[in-house]
Design a protein that fits this description.
Blueprint (H helix, E strand, L loop, with lengths): L5 H4 L27 E4 L2 E4 L2 E4 L17 E5 L4 E6 L5 E7 L1 E8 L10 E7 L4 E5 L3 E7 L5 E5 L13 E2 L16
């Protein structure tokens, strides 16, 4: 009688080995696009509720002052994007819900030209994300409830001439339709 282990019973042509995505200390190994920053946020809780800081000049996160602040809500399963800016940086803070930011570096002179990043920020893993000019980005609500993020762009909004450029989804080397998970 031959004994097979569970691994021998799996067809190796349909299975792939996972790659390491975090260090022993829990830090992500993902290489970020040049000039993109992610600053984790700490939520402080007590019996009254919670508080979380979104942006402080003392952090040295980005030197531009806050000129304009807005909140954006995304319905479950919906996507906002693909866009980029020529002048402003976006400073996005995920407040509620579960979102995936996808960034694509289209800057031909960047050392990370062509790189795509997936950055997950949620109400359980809040953070501040800096997206520099000419980095194409979109955000998807991957949760089951509405998601809210706050943007504090580095330039004031110009209603007559917005610094926003839309990119056709088929020209971005990324698909949000990845099928069922593992």
């Amino acid at each position: 009688m031959t004994h097979t282990t569970p691994m021998e019973a799996v067809d190796p042509h349909i299975a792939t080995k996972d790659i390491s995505t975090v260090t022993r200390s829990g830090q992500r190994k993902q290489r970020l696009i040049q000039d993109v920053q992610v600053r984790e946020a700490i939520t402080h809780e007590d019996e009254r509720g919670e508080i979380v800081e979104m942006l402080s000049q003392s952090w040295g996160f980005h030197p531009a002052p806050v000129h304009h602040v807005y909140a954006s809500l995304i319905r479950p399963g919906k996507i906002k994007g693909w866009v980029y800016h020529k002048h402003q940086c976006d400073r996005m803070f995920s407040l509620t819900g579960f979102v995936k930011y996808v960034l694509w570096d289209m800057r031909s002179d960047s050392p990370t030209h062509g790189l795509v990043n997936e950055i997950y920020l949620t109400e359980r893993n809040r953070g501040l994300l800096l997206i520099p000019p000419y980095v194409v980005h979109a955000v998807q609500n991957i949760g089951l409830t509405d998601a809210v993020f706050i943007n504090m762009p580095t330039e004031p909004y110009n209603h007559e001439n917005p610094d926003k450029y839309r990119v056709a989804p088929e020209s971005v080397p990324y698909s949000f339709d990845k099928g069922p998970g593992w």
